[in-house]
Amino acid sequence: MSKKDLQLDIRGGANEIAVIRLARPAKRNALGDALILALRDVFENLPATVRAAVIDGEGEHFCAGLDLSELQERDAGQGLHHSRMWHAALERVQYGPVPVIAALHGAVVGGGLELASACHIRVADESTFYALPEGSRGIFVGGGGSVRIPKLIGVARMTDMMLTGRVYNAADGERIGLAQYLVPAGTAFDKAFELAQRVAQNAPLTNYALMHALPRIAEQAADQGFLTEALMAAIAQSAPEAKSRVRDFLDGRAAKVQKA
Question: Which is catalytic among the residues 70, 73, 91, 114?
Fold first, then answer.
C-alpha cells in the first residue's frame, strides 16, 4: 500500500477533527490488508487533541469491499488469524479514542459495509448502495460484519443480502438502519463533518460512555445493564466539565432543546 492510499488530515479549531480518507479511487477504495492495518495504526495514534473523526472515500465510491486481487489461498488456521487481524483493526474504529462518522457514497459493499458498521454514525448520500456479495463468491464475511450488521438491520435482512445478492439503494438502506442520515448526492462529507463538529463539543467522558459503555450495556442482562449504567452515570457526572455544563444550564447560559 502506498502511503497515499490512506490520508489523514487534522482540521484545527478548539476541538480538532480527524478526516481519514480512503484514497484508492482506481480500485473503488477496495480494502487490502495493508490498508486495514493503516486504519488500525491511525486510530491507535490519533493526537490527544482530536475529539471526533470522519471516514470518507475518495472518488465515486466509499468502499467496494475486499480487494479480491489480494485474496490468497489459506488453510483454516491462516484464515482464522487473518480474520482476527481485521477484527482487531476495526475494533480500533468502534472502540477507539473518538466517535467516528462515516460519509457514505457510491458503493458500500462487502468489507466496505463492515467498515461502515464499525463507525458510530453513518451519513449516506443519494448515490449510496449497499451489498454483501460474499455469498455469491463462495466466501463469508470476515471483518466483523456478522456481528455488527445484524445489530443494524437484523439477522433476516443480512441473511437475505448474502443468500440472494440483494442490493439496497440509499433510501431503502436508510429506512432499514444502514445509515442514520440521508442527504443529497455529493453532500455526505459536509454533513458528516458538521456532525463531527457537533459531537466534538460534547464532554469527552460522555462520548467515551456512548462509544464504550452503551453497546456493552445493550448486550447485558437487564439487571447487569442497570448497574453498569448507574456506574457510568456516576463517573460521567463527577467530571469537572459535566459539573460546569450543568451549572451553565441552571444559570441560563446554555441553550435549551428546541423543536427540530
Answer: 114
Do 132 and 244 sit in the same domain of this protein? no
Which residue range is the domain that position 212 belongs to? Answer: 204-250
Residue 170, all three cell numbers: 440509499
Q: What is the pLDDT of residues 3-24, one digit of tens each?
A: 689 999 999 878 999 999 999 9
- What pLDDT does 94 receive? 98
Confidence of residue 66 (pLDDT cuts 50, 70, 90): confident
DSSP, res 66:
B
Q: Output phi, psi for 14, to 5 deg.
A: -60, -35
| 88 three-state secondary structure | helix
Same domain? 244 vs 143: no
In a domain, 233, yes or no: yes
Catalytic residue among 16, 60, 134, 229: 134
Q: Is 134 a catalytic residue?
A: yes
- Residues 192, 74: one domain? yes
Strand positions, DSSP E, the chain: 6-11, 16-22, 50-57, 100-104, 107-109, 121-125, 129-131, 168-169, 181-183
Domain count, the chain: 2
CA 25 to chain centre: 20
- State yes or no: is 91 an active-site residue: no
In a domain, 186, yes or no: yes
H-state helical runs in 17-94: 33-44, 76-94
Q: Are 15 and 47 contacting, i.e. CB atoms less than 8 angstroms apart?
A: no
Q: Is 9 exposed, middle or buried (CB count within 10 Å of its CB: 0-12, 13-18, 19+)?
A: exposed
